[in-house]
């Protein structure tokens, strides 16, 4: 059977349920025989509840935090050129996104955009493991 | 995994895979799942709400940018908390000249007598050295194993256990 020193080291993770099945079995077996380690477990559980309650009182991350993150996700426009008129025109734009600079070009016909090219769409193949 | 009405709930790993493929909706879901946890972890480290908010933002941006480099052998939460920790200490180094740290307890003491025990725990937590405080947070609030904490902090498992031992002793003294 494991000794008190080993068991007491393990008690916080016994209390949060993350020990391996073998470790859990050994701690449980020791607890069955050791009054002082059972008291240590009771103390740890009281501390755990106290810490959880204290941390729940912290405010949540404000909604505004998303705005800055979203800007990075969408990409930051760095250049935009529009030529022509409502009837017929051309638009060229570039932005910074994830360390790259995708560029897109659109033909504008009667106010509607027709995509001519977009380097962003072609640059997504390197991912995932 | 499935939620109600046929809605599929993606695992953290599935979300990261989609984020790596630049799926913005998946990233928003991942943000909802982790940003607040990262904020609380950062606050536990820094005891400063504004800096913790900044760390949470920087961390989630780093997750977006580097999702394709996620090593599948670790848990997503372990990876994200590791990033947050590095961001927090980077920020501390930058802020030291400005002396913005710390700004004291975030929650003002409540005079209600029923909250006395909670105040005692809050006070005792705030008094813990930062290395012990974060082990307590990751164990009791995040529910991580000592192995995962060891990976996040980059220290031996024995050191994690030792920090917890000392932290528990101080918290217990405050409670008794």
Helical proportion of chain A, percent range: 40-55%
According to DSSP, the number of beta strands of chain B is 0
CATH topology description of the largest domain in chain B:
Rna Polymerase Sigma Factor, Chain: A
**Largest sheet features of chain B:** none
Helices and strands of chain A, in order, run as HHHHEEEEH
Written overview of the protein:
The complex is a heterodimer of chains A (129) and B (176). Chain A is built from 5 helices and 4 strands. With 129 residues, chain A is α+β, with helices and mostly antiparallel strands. Chain A has 2 domains: 53 residues; 46 residues. Chain A is rod-shaped and about 85 Å long. Chain B has 8 helices and no strands. The chains are: A alpha+beta (129), B mainly alpha (176). At the A-B interface, helix 1, helix 3 and helix 4 of A face helix 2, helix 3, helix 5, helix 6 and helix 8 of B.
What labels describe this entry?
heterodimer, A: 129 residues, alpha+beta, 2 domains, 4-stranded antiparallel sheet, 4 strands, 47% helix, disordered C terminus, B: 176 residues, mainly alpha, Rna Polymerase Sigma Factor, Chain: A, Arc Repressor Mutant, subunit A, 8 helices, globular
Summarize the SSE layout with pairings.
The complex is a heterodimer of chains A (129) and B (176).
Chain A: H1 4-15, H2 21-33, H3 35-56, H4 65-74, E1 76-84, E2 88-96, E3 103-109, E4 112-118, H5 119-122
Chain B: H1 12-20, H2 24-46, H3 49-66, H4 76-95, H5 116-127, H6 130-141, H7 146-153, H8 157-175
Helix pairs in contact in B: 1-2, 2-3, 2-4, 2-6, 3-4, 4-7, 5-8, 6-8, 7-8
Short description:
Chain A has 129 residues and is α+β, with helices and mostly antiparallel strands. Chain A has helices spanning 4-15, 21-33, 35-56, 65-74, 119-122; strands at residues 76-84, 88-96, 103-109, 112-118. Chain A is built from 5 helices and 4 strands; from the N terminus they run ααααββββα.
């Amino acid at each position: 059977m494991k000794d008190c020193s080993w068991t007491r080291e393990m008690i916080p993770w016994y209390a949060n349920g993350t020990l391996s099945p073998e470790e859990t079995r050994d701690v449980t077996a020791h607890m069955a025989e050791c009054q002082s380690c059972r008291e240590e477990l009771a103390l740890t559980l009281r501390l755990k509840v106290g810490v959880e309650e204290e941390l729940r009182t912290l405010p949540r991350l404000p909604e505004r935090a998303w705005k800055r993150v979203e800007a990075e996700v969408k990409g930051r426009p760095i250049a935009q050129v529009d030529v022509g008129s409502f009837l017929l025109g051309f638009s060229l734009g570039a932005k910074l996104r994830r360390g790259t600079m995708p560029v897109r070009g659109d033909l504008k016909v009667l106010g509607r955009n027709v995509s001519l090219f977009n380097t962003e769409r072609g640059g997504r193949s390197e991912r995932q493991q | 995994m499935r939620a109600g009405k046929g809605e599929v709930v993606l695992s953290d790993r599935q979300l990261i895979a989609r984020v790596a493929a630049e799926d913005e909706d998946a990233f928003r879901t991942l943000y909802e799942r982790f940003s607040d946890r990262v904020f609380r972890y950062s606050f536990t480290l820094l005891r400063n709400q504004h800096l913790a908010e900044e760390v949470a933002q920087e961390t989630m941006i780093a997750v977006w940018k580097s999702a394709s480099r996620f090593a599948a052998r670790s848990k997503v939460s372990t990876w994200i908390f590791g990033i947050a920790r590095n961001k927090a200490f980077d920020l501390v180094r930058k802020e030291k000249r400005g002396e913005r740290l710390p700004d004291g307890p975030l929650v003002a003491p409540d005079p209600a007598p029923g909250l006395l025990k909670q105040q005692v725990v809050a006070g005792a937590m705030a008094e813990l050295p930062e290395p012990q405080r974060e082990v307590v947070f990751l164990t009791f609030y995040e529910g991580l194993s000592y192995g995962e904490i060891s990976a996040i902090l980059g220290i031996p498992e024995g050191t994690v256990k030792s920090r917890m031992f000392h932290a528990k002793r101080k918290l217990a003294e405050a409670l008794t």
